[in-house]
Amino acid sequence: MDVNGWSFVKGNEQYAEDAARILDTRFQEALRHRWVARFVDAESVGRLTYESTWALKGVLSVCRHADRTPKQKMKRVTRAPSVVALLGADGSERILRTRDELDQALAALHAAADCSDGTAIAQLIDVLQRKIALPGTKVQVRAQNASGAVQVVLKWGGTCTHAGTVQSQDLGERMRKDLMLLNAALLDDVQFFSSAERRVQSTVAAYAGAFVAKGAEKPQFSIRSDMLDDFSAAKPAIDKDKEQLCGFFNFDGPLEGNPFYDATYMALPADMGSNPRVFLADLCSLVHRLIARMERNFATLSADALERLQPEWCCNETAELFRERWKKILADFQETDKHTGATVYDPTMIGKLCDSLKYDALHNRRFLEHIFQDPDEMNDGSSDFLEIAAAPAPSQDRSASVANGSSSMYPPDPLFAQKEVRQLYYKARLLLNYVSHHEFGITPSQRKTIGVQASVPLLRKLIADLDEIRSTSSEPRTRFYFTKESHIHTLLNIILLCGMPNAMSYEQVDELDYLTHIIFEVYERKPDVDANVDREYSLRIGFSPGASCFHVLDIDIDCTHALKVLPRRNFTHHMPLDSAIDVLQQLLDDHKSEL
């Protein structure tokens, strides 16, 4: 060993041993954060063990898309002939995405402006004219049974961000490195499948580009809407559960008298109190108060002052779009019953609020922190609102990886100054966790049924893949399936409830964030290559909650605005592959018999 400038260490055995020990400790610490850690047994290095006779032969990954802009939509029903004519040739649902198609939809709406549904049409025209050039804008037209009416759904936003591209590339590169270490042959047969959603395709393109070797041909991927988009078979059951949730949160009275309450499966977290309507009303009141402050600041601050709050915007966002998005959140969350005049809340809209809070915490942190401030409190004679807003954020040595995944309600070292926005964030996260655990089924039986209904094509493909991998003549292979959040929820529910040896409970699964992924790992073992014995096959399922961070308001972020994807952990223990395939196949057989 030679260390320049430190001649006394030459020949010093103690120094060499100490250096090796320190390096080994550092390497072991780093390794624990990588997927390959589960394959390394420090005490077994250099000798043959039972575990080391197993080889990873197949990897099937089902992954959610990466970071995106907040999704927004508007639904209206009309019988206007020009709009009905937008349906497909056989009256089927049609999605218009290209600029020419959107111009066609706008022309059809203008032609229907004088019909009896004029108010609804005017609202659609106004929004479509303003959003037509934004990425992700599309119009869905679907028939309303036999009524002769059509539902027009205008959607905008929901496109992959620059942070999503960075996350996808990072995860794809890490996966390639892991597979290179475990079994390089897994890289010889790789296929990618994607839903038809633009944000999902953008995720696949970035991930796949980083997964292949540098200089290699960019991989292609197949669009499988039937497998990774379609949710129609489960929609009636999901709508029924959402109705129960809405009834539960809108009942005004004690929990024991709530007719929508199931004491076994709908217990409220302690922090939500005993009256769900009161909790939701308090949350909406907080949103209303913050939006009123925002409106006051927009009314009193000049365009130059608003620009000083946040000079640069990303993802095609502007201060006015920020304002419009937040006003729409409140409108979606509560409405007034036309007959009774009572306020009706929709708890299933909580995902939109959490999406906006997280998106703005990462991409519009400075504007989020200051546009909701009360100018009277900020400008008390000792400090100026704009001076505080323009001041650089405090620099602290903080690690996003430490905060990622933390479940503590209060960060140890908060950076975000707006206390009421923080209060809203934690209330919203609490409600999101409750709703997401119930909107795909209240009871375990309902969750399992909905899971299978929504996942039949995907289950068939996974079973076929697993069956091919266990063939002794097959080569190692890797398959990637990229989809949206709802398919991840339903697949997880299936795994949790189908009788597999789970290493996690349902309650341990929190938010399924961007790039959440479920990995089916197939292992092959033949104890003695010369012995005339059958190979053994084992399946283990891994899981990562994706780019999850509980204290997203209070972490330092760099210019990429990208959170790191959390390491995978075991979702199930090892199980014989034959048994796992039989369990999954039985789910399909039971579903078929119920039709």
Question: Explain this structure to me?
Answer:
There is one protein chain. The protein has 595 residues and is an alpha+beta fold. It is 44% helix and 13% strand. The protein has 20 helices and 14 strands. The chain has helices at 13-31, 81-84, 99-111, 118-131, 162-182, 198-211, 225-228, 235-250, 276-300, 303-309, 319-333, 350-363, 365-371, 375-378, 385-390, 400-403, 419-436, 444-469, 485-497, 577-594; strands at residues 54-64, 71-78, 94-96, 138-143, 150-157, 190-194, 221-223, 334-336, 343-345, 477-483, 517-525, 536-544, 569-570, 575-576. The strands form 3 sheets. Strands 1, 6, 7, 10, 11, 12, 13 and 14 form an 8-stranded mixed β-sheet that branches. A 4-stranded antiparallel β-sheet has the order 2-5-4-3. The protein has a two-stranded antiparallel sheet with strand order 8-9. Mean pLDDT is 86; it is low at 1-5 and 388-408.
